[in-house]
Amino acid sequence: METTDEKDKRSQKARQLYHYLNNNKDGLLPYQKQGRKIPEPREGILYKNMGVQESQNCTVITMRMKHRRMRWSAKGANNLAKVLCCKENKELCSTIERYTDGLIFHARMNEVIETLSAAKIPKKEGKGNPYVDIIRGHVSLLDAATSASRKIFRDAFIR
Questions:
Q1: Rounded Cα gap, residues 44 and 47, in angstroms
Q2: Which of 74, 73, 96 is nearest to 83 (CA)?
Q3: Measured distance CA(33)–CA(18) in Å, rounded
Q4: At what angle do helices 92-100 and 74-88 cross, to 10 degrees?
Q5: For site-directed labelling of 78, which of 22, 88, 131, 136 has its Cα 20 to 30 A away?
Q6: In angstroms, what CA-CA distances link 45 with 7, 39, 51, 134?
Q7: Nearest-angstrom CA–CA distance, 40 and 47
Q8: d(CA 56, CA 62)
Q9: What is the pLDDT of residue 121?
Q10: Residue 1: what pLDDT?
């Protein structure tokens, strides 16, 4: 906002943002500090601060989208956010059925899904490093009293 050059779009956008925030600063306060009387929550509903929602946005949407370090178009990110919100709100199945006449779920009903426990999964999957246990292993010679021959052995083979 330092420059007054009207052609500088970044300064112009910064000024617009500043004026918008300045004009709406009363509405930017949390509802607890605005002095508004909100209705009592219905049974089973609990009012929480916006920090909870921001945390959910991070875990549900942001981490999901960025976990694979991919870039998203604005339209693609918006669509994925809608899908993830439907999933979190337990509305995904009903939404898909509404648009597909339930054909997808009826076809998958015949599949058998086997649930694996963590104990049944092999400890090493994929390529991995077959020597990781050897690398992490303890070399007892390093803890022993060091003589001249042990120093030579250590320097030649271990380090």
A1: 10
A2: 96
A3: 22
A4: 110
A5: 22
A6: 50, 12, 17, 54
A7: 9
A8: 9
A9: 62
A10: 47
Is residue 23 within 8 A of residue 17, CB to CB? The reply is: no
Structure tokens at 136: 């992490």
Task: Copy the structure tokens of residue 16.
Answer: 């617009």
Contact 32, 51 (CB under 8 A): no
Cβ pair 117, 105 in contact under 8 A: no
Q: Rounded to 5, what percent of the chain is helix, strand, coil?
A: 55, 0, 45
Contacts of 88 (CB under 8 A, 6+ apart): 56, 60
Maximum alpha-carbon separation in the chain: 82
Q: Are 50 and 57 in contact (CB under 8 A)?
A: no
